[in-house]
Amino acid sequence: MFIPGWLISLLTFPGVVVHEWAHKIFCDHLGVRVHKVVYFQFGNPAGYVSHEEPKTYKQTFWISVGPLLVNSIGTVALSFIAANAISGSGLWYFLLWLAISVGMHSFPSDHDMEHIHSSSKNAIKNGGSPLYYLAFPLVVLIWIANKLRIFWFDAIYAIALISFGGGLSGISTDSVNSNPILNDDMVTVGEYNCTNYFAEQSDILAPIETVRTELSLERKSLDQKDADLNIFRKQIENDIYDSTDDFEIEMHNSLVDKYNGDLRLYQADENILRIKIDVYNKQIEKYNDYLSEHCTAK
Questions:
Q1: How far is 298 from 292, CA to CA, in rounded Å?
Q2: CA dist., res. 197 & res. 204, Å (int)
Q3: Other CB atoms within 10 A of residue 296 CB
Q4: Spatial separation of the C-alpha atoms in residues 84 and 133, rounded to whole Å
Q5: Of 90, 161, 194, 274, whose Cβ has the fewest other Cβ atoms within 10 Å?
């Protein structure tokens, strides 16, 4: 199933806003006058920054790659915060949505890369540093990344940043335990004996059981989708049609297009589920680490 670009931009509009804001802050920082900023709109492009022509290579380069830096760092920061939120809470889902949205709009446009490519060629032609040659691989990589968006590469990039940001997370036990009011009464928490104070603190970190159930149901649903896709693929492979009949060719091709669209949606859902499972497992690890550090095993 084909998803229009405007719909993706609408669902991930915070990323568009941050992308255009990144262009603007680099313009302001480098002294390039901005004429107009549209942070989000329905249409193509979803947003833009109109500014005067940069006078230096430095201005051209950093204004063009600004979103790659700002959106990428923003995604890691948001995922770091999300990893420390209560798994399955409204805040947790909200932060993950923000992180995915911001990460998916990290890549500069081909138009931005054309500016860097042209400026690099002119700089080298005018006797500039050989370091300007390093800009060409960057231009090629961004160009390839933009072309791979049809295969959800922008979402895959966002997911990679989220995984990295979540891996950096950790809750400081010093802040949790500062000046605790200890109670000598011991209670049982799973396989540990804890004081009342640490037992109450562990409840804050405990993973929510309903989230585990929801993840299990999502896993079963995706497994069923995978099985249905395999059946659909075999039906297409076994489809017999008249290769001289334009109508039958068109019908067959429409089936192939539908399969490819469903497959891309399945892959996106699979990647999102992996993020949820990874975050949930990290919550379990934090919970168990807290118990092992502050309580006594039975």
A1: 11
A2: 11
A3: 11
A4: 41
A5: 90
Pairing of strands 186-189, 48-51: unpaired
Distance CA 126, CA 136 (A): 17
Instruction: Give CA angle at 93 (92, 99), nearest 5°.
Output: 90
> In the structure encoding, which two tokens stand for residue 1, read together?
């199933």
pTM of the model: 0.56
Measured between alpha carbons, how far is 52 from 71 in angstroms, rounded to an integer?
A: 23
Residues 53-81: b if buried by 16+ CB within 10 A, e if exposed: ebeebebbbbbbbbbbebbbebbbbbbbb
- 296-297 and 48-51: which strand pairing? unpaired
What is the domain partition of the chain in residue ranges?
5-167, 178-297
* Residues in contact with 177: Cβ distance below 8 Å, sequence separation at least 6, in sequence order: 201, 294
Inter-CA distances, 73 with 53, 141, 176, 198, 203, Å: 27, 19, 27, 35, 32
pLDDT digits (tens, 9 = 90+) for 54-98: 999 999 999 999 999 999 999 999 999 988 877 677 888 899 999
Rounded distance, CA 155 to CA 134, Å? 26
Whether residue 90 contacts residue 38, with contact meaning beta carbons closer than 8 Å, is answered with no
- pLDDT 10s digits, 223-251: 999 999 999 999 988 888 777 888 888 88
